[in-house]
């Protein structure tokens, strides 16, 4: 009897999901509107989550909370603002220079593909065809990534005015954190309060150190990469350092994704420059994997590498680069939720 009840429940869930997907033309625009409205609040909540331990540390030293937040804001947003003031003009100049160099880079690329085509012409027909197919697939993949990157940048620029609200929203979240916790506490049913606190504590323990540490490591790697490439005489060092640092947030695959643009651009200069750039990236990733991440991030997630890789593949398939970035934190929260659910059902 239990088997038939469970089977019926599963069938009802499948039918419900089917009708939800059939009605996606109705609810998808509403969902997009909700996501657009909530995005500044989500980003502000993320910033507040990152800065909250520091605010609490300063506040416990006898400094009023509002003043502690203001001090951190001056350092945090002041540093970001100064970096943007100094870095954005250089970044725009490098982007403009790269745009002017695109025809030359395209000619170099076509020269490579022609050379590969000529060298593989005498190979068996199937192997030659497979090489050409691989080249076309790589071109399509790079074109898709470039399109997504341009679309993302345009979306961010179009929403610039909305994102100006983020610091103010984050300020009030940090200032009224205790009141917000009490409101959530009052809205939560009594029987779930204790379990809810334990769940959030475990999520914060598993995820908080990972996110803060990972962001610090990525910023450090990106800055050192830009400086190293500039010293080596590589073109567009700030732009490439930004890409290397940003993609480094993706475990395992991020360094490879970040290395591709640097390697391709270095190859158009000379084989020697390509070797230097690849050597810099290899040394940085060795330093990050063997020194920085174990020291700063540690093993806070307590997840097997195979689970992390599987989550990255799924995230990439569902939402591209953004999906790969949020895949690991999502799986970490899901793991904590599953453990708590198993513990709850085992005791009842």
Automatic annotation (TrEMBL):
Chief localization class?
membrane
- What does UniProt give as the signal peptide span? none
Recite the UniProt keywords alphabetically.
Answer: Membrane, Transmembrane, Transmembrane helix
What GO CC terms are in its UniProt record? membrane
Where is the protein localized?
Membrane
Give TM regions. Answer: 7-24, 30-51, 63-85, 155-174, 215-232, 238-257, 264-287, 307-334
Q: Which domain of life is it from?
A: Bacteria
User: Hey, which family's this protein in?
Assistant: Belongs to the autoinducer-2 exporter (AI-2E) (TC 2.A.86) family.
- Name-wise, this protein is AI-2E family transporter
Recorded source organism is Anoxybacteroides rupiense
The opening ranks of the lineage are: Bacteria, Bacillati, Bacillota, Bacilli, Bacillales
